[in-house]
Design a protein that fits this description.
This protein is mainly beta. Helices cover 0% and strands 55% of the residues.
């Protein structure tokens, strides 16, 4: 099986920055696309950003221009650089990877105060 380990969450003030990381470990044959979703209390999980094996990126309109997704293929790791954070970015952030099936990380809390 594949395990995704997330880190980098925390508490920041509005306008600050955080860098999330997510490393895939375990019995990995091949890693395809990777990405991030987030879920705030009382809301459904929503796509934040993803990156394909070819390096193409996609962002939700709400984070475009502020967040940057990248990957380290050698270490099966995906990153999310989050700049100019807003209180509405507060959520649990979940990374995922698509291989033979879809795998999810355990989530990391991001809290942005005014």
């Amino acid at each position: 099986q594949v395990q995704l380990v997330e880190s980098g969450g925390g508490l920041v003030q509005a306008g600050g920055s955080l860098r999330l990381s997510c490393a895939a470990t375990g019995s990995i044959f091949s890693i395809g696309a990777m990405g991030w979703h987030r879920q705030a209390p009382g809301k459904e999980r929503e796509l934040v950003a993803d990156i394909t094996t070819g390096g193409s990126t996609n962002y939700a309109d709400s984070v475009k221009g502020r967040f940057t997704i990248s990957r380290d293929t050698a270490n099966n790791t995906v990153y999310l650089q989050m700049n100019s954070l807003k209180p509405e970015d507060t959520a649990v952030y979940y990374c995922w990877t698509s291989t033979l099936r879809l795998y999810w990380g355990q989530g990391t809390q991001v809290t942005v105060s005014s």
